[in-house]
């Protein structure tokens, strides 16, 4: 019996102890590796669409259902780990996303870069909004943003507005949530 065999055995035992609602989320994370909630949502809906069930019996997942199940897997059952925020593109939009992976999985998110200075979420301390604000400012300074991009549209000079719209169409800059 190899390491992979014992891992699968353990995974099966853990999966059987979880509530029915959490199982699909854990299975997707196990099969596809580290993901953010939007990607988990897409994978679950694709998986459900590929089943042979009649259309009215297929489940349509929504983001609040996925986020709730991930939260349970992280905090209640401890089988999913927080990887922190990563910056990258998803469906043509550059943004930062929070990634999750199954405990013991060593794979890293593909196509995403770890956000600098982002401490992992500690449920005992809660979210550190001052640190996140500092991260956004640091990221805006280190990337090549349009001058005046931090200004609201009403305060931005006209030339910068045109430049900003041009870059918005071509997608040549990063957005940070």
Could you please describe the fold and organization of this structure?
With 177 residues, the protein is α+β, with helices and mostly antiparallel strands. The chain contains six helices and four strands; from the N terminus they run ααβααβββαα. It has helices at residues 3-17, 23-32, 37-49, 63-76, 129-142, 158-170, and strands spanning 35-36, 80-90, 93-102, 112-114. The termini are far apart. It has a four-stranded antiparallel β-sheet with strand order 1-3-2-4.
Report a brief summary of the structure:
The chain has 177 residues and is of the alpha+beta class. The chain has two domains: 3-127, Orthogonal Bundle (Arc Repressor Mutant, subunit A); 143-177, no CATH class. The chain contains six helices and four strands; from the N terminus they run ααβααβββαα.
Name some characteristics of this structure:
177 residues, alpha+beta, Arc Repressor Mutant, subunit A, disordered C terminus
Mean pLDDT: 75
Kindly estimate the percentage of residues that lie in beta strands according to DSSP: 5-15%
Helical stretch count? Answer: 6
- Number of domains in the coordinates? 2
SSE-based structural type: alpha+beta
Task: Spell out the blueprint of helices and strands.
Elements: H1 3-17, H2 23-32, E1 35-36, H3 37-49, H4 63-76, E2 80-90, E3 93-102, E4 112-114, H5 129-142, H6 158-170
Antiparallel strand pairs: 1-3, 2-3, 2-4
């Amino acid at each position: 019996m190899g390491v992979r065999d014992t891992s699968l055995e353990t995974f099966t035992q853990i999966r059987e102890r979880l509530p029915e609602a959490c199982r699909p989320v854990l299975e997707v994370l196990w099969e596809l590796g580290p993901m953010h909630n939007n990607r988990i949502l897409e994978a679950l809906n694709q998986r459900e669409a590929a089943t042979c069930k009649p259309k009215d019996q297929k489940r349509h997942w929504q983001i609040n259902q996925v986020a709730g199940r991930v939260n349970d897997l992280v905090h209640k059952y401890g089988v999913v780990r927080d990887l922190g925020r990563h910056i990258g593109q998803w469906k043509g939009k550059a943004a930062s996303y929070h990634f999750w992976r199954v405990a013991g999985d060593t794979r890293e998110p593909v196509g995403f870069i770890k956000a600098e200075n982002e401490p992992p979420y500690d449920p005992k301390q809660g979210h550190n909004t001052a640190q996140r604000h500092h991260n956004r400012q640091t990221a805006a300074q280190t990337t090549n943003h349009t001058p005046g991009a931090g200004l609201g549209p009403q305060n931005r000079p006209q030339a910068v507005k045109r430049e900003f719209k041009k870059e918005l169409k071509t997608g040549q800059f990063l957005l940070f949530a």
